[in-house]
Amino acid sequence: MARGADLAKLAALLADETRAEFCLALLDGRAWTGRELARHAGVAPSTTTEHLNRLVAGGLLTERRQGRHRYVQLAGPHTAELLEHLIGHIQPGPGRPRTLRSAATSAALARGRTCYDHLAGRLGVAITDAMLGNGLLDHAAELALTSTGRTWLTTALGVDPADLRPGRRPLTRACLDWTERRSHLAGLSGAHICRRLHENEWIKRIGTSRAVRLTPAGEQALHRLLGLESLNDDQ
Amino acid sequence: MARGADLAKLAALLADETRAEFCLALLDGRAWTGRELARHAGVAPSTTTEHLNRLVAGGLLTERRQGRHRYVQLAGPHTAELLEHLIGHIQPGPGRPRTLRSAATSAALARGRTCYDHLAGRLGVAITDAMLGNGLLDHAAELALTSTGRTWLTTALGVDPADLRPGRRPLTRACLDWTERRSHLAGLSGAHICRRLHENEWIKRIGTSRAVRLTPAGEQALHRLLGLESLNDDQ
DNA sequence: GTGTCGGTTCGGCGTGCGCCGAACCGACGA
DNA sequence: TCGTCGGTTCGGCGCACGCCGAACCGACAC
User: Which residue in A202, B51, B182, B220 is a FRET match for A124, CA 20 to 30 A apart?
Assistant: First the structure.
């Protein structure tokens, strides 16, 4: 079978700090250019090219050439899942976070962030909990969309019903959050919620990171739609 | 945050073919001695020691010293999950399986195998499907044990009710099978089912591998308890 | 056209690490 | 008590690979 070699080859893609940093950056779900990744990780452009070649060849990333730019992004939700799974396995090392700046970043990430294409962090968990409390999700085993939840998505949030047809991707999925150690909504529904919140400007990216901030309008909207209270001020 | 470095360090543990082979062998859920792993992977004992030190230090394996033996096993179900997740991401390479012997092994693994502590492969999927069909599991979102299912486990299968109390480990979990591309039952219930089937000698390991074979008694029992028909003869 | 800029190719450097064999230690059995 | 055996430590070898700079290519702007 030679499975060991295959597994090792896959793991080797992420076993380099620079490549790992690339993948973590790409967890925001957007497409980055080579330059951006190079600056982000602090390596030369030539080095970046080599790494990207390996990641694309290994199937973790897809690329799109456009003019003189090379855009790369995660190959899909399954790749993002794999990464979050791995991150969840990193044992909480001692003495981290170290610097003030990194502590601030960690706090922002913990408060709310995107996990490829859905919401995670305290914000993601809070929304999931509220949807459960309002009967929009069913907690039978993991997370299932109720019929009330389906109409809520289309009417209250304005998701196109055609976008909720079951396809290759499951309608709901429970994603375990590594900061909260709690499940939150992922899958197609999670992605649509995240998209609509962005489109309504109820959440905004903090700088260019994965961390997101709830806008005042968003706070009102989530209060109105889900009964959520004060997410930004606690801690 | 230096998360990239942490992720890389974790991935590096599996980025070596020998260590990967160790972990795959340990996916059978049993404890192996250093000697056994050395022979299995075809490396010197000294090399094995170094690899095991790294894997234990990295938290993927736990060890138990007993006399002059060093037993190692996977750190827990979460580690097994991570490995199966990674295996599921290995793209189906061309031209595999290559040899007759490896083809036979693959077929046996596809037919039925243990996935750390529960059943997978065609057998695992068939049992899960039968449990769903008989109302022992609920398909709402993923897999949930119904009340009928709970009594079935304790009466028909003889699982101690005290063992079904929710603890740190979820009662049910859906594990995606990489041969069948289908969900099957994992979690506490899955582990108990696998254990009871072994204890009743309804399944038996093939040699020392993870592959399992349904015994004639097992075939009768699964027919009686779940209405399952002829799993061994097809293909 | 010319300059700038993103990306690639190539050669070369340093080192991290996977491997082994030899020596050693400690547990067990005769 | 002495051999055997599982496991460990240590020194050393060699390869793989991550990195860079220099040269080059193609796209875009002026």
Answer: B182
